[in-house]
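Q: Got a minute? One more chain.
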Amino acid sequence: MKNFILIGLLLFMSMCKSPGNKSHVTAYKSIHIDTSRYAVLKFDTIAKLYGIFEKNYKPAVLSDVEIAEIQDLLTKRVMQYNDTAYSAYKKDSIESKKRHPGSTAYDGRIIHPEKYYHQLIAAINSKGQKEVWINCFCDTYLIPSHSDRSYWRKHIFMVMDGGACFFHLRINLGTKTIYRFYVNSVA
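A: Always. Here it is, folded:
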């Protein structure tokens, strides 16, 4: 019996310390999820009303590991977006200064995405894969019609314009695919 326990312990330790291992044990143990900035909303008629998911989607729940995975995928996608946005900003800045000396171009990068608030709604698609809609915004003070600052924890918060302070996307956790990544425009 002692041999089985020892073998099991050695196998577990080798899995956790293997440099090529990408298991959930090692991949997400160091990621901190700031629960004050995440709200998992119910999949209900509101999600259908906003057209977030197709009609045949079913409600799903999210685990802490999945939220950490979402955070990781989201961070990587925002970094890609910021590279493109910064290139556009530099180009626009040069053009703006040529046409209007002293003017500045709009910097559309998402600054400090880890400080954004995140609303998540999870669903199962027709293939049985879990998909998550993530709505991100930079601060709750931007909710003008609601003095209740916890409003965002219960209700979808959508705005027009607002620039890089607001963006949303969908992630297929089964395929690790991000799509419908949309950053708001500026008025």
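A: Helices lie at 2-17, 24-27, 45-49, 64-99.
Q: Perfect, thanks.
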